[in-house]
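Researcher: Please generate the 3D structure of the following complex. Treat every line as part of one assembly.
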Amino acid sequence: GQQVMQIPQYQHVQEGEDFTTYCNSSTTLSNIQWYKQRPGGHPVFLIQLVKSGEVKKQKRLTFQFGEAKKNSSLHITATQTTDVGTYFCAGPNTGNQFYFGTGTSLTVIP
Amino acid sequence: DTGVSQNPRHKITKRGQNVTFRCDPISEHNRLYWYRQTLGQGPEFLTYFQNEAQLEKSRLLSDRFSAERPKGSFSTLEIQRTEQGDSAMYLCASSLGRNRGRGGGYTFGSGTRLTVV
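Model: Done. Output below.
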């Protein structure tokens, strides 16, 4: 079945440093979504990427979808303590239900 | 409150008991999903409804699990003869569909945390 893997599993950064998480799929994805889950919270939708090579920005967050539509990345510039949480990518299966990646847990050290 | 509502927030039950969770999605969302999440893992897909029709079930959903969405609005997830391995956060999500509103992104509820003792 479709699998979405993320690296790294954990990342600790000093406040102000940049952070990147990578998402890789074993199959070509029609689209990919990104979610953020704060500690003790539930996943919150951030963005959806659809086009090959697409790049979208949300303030300090930059999302990319690979040319082959098998990988994606989320980059955060100048991290803040409010960025703490686990970031998940999610890709659709043939039925278009989304399967979540393993997640990258971000800790920001003040 | 216009978000996805789940009840109860927490449930502690003895092994072998039956439990039922409820999810009230965003009213205009026709799609409803159940996921299960354990500590340190991503949400795992369980089942999906479009309106009242259950269109997909994961193989994770054993015959002890059943979900309904009788009128295409709220949904219930029942677990019969609970086992300790069922302990997890059960998340409900709803959406308008892939290409409608927020790019098809899911709105999750706060979840029901089940502990089987």
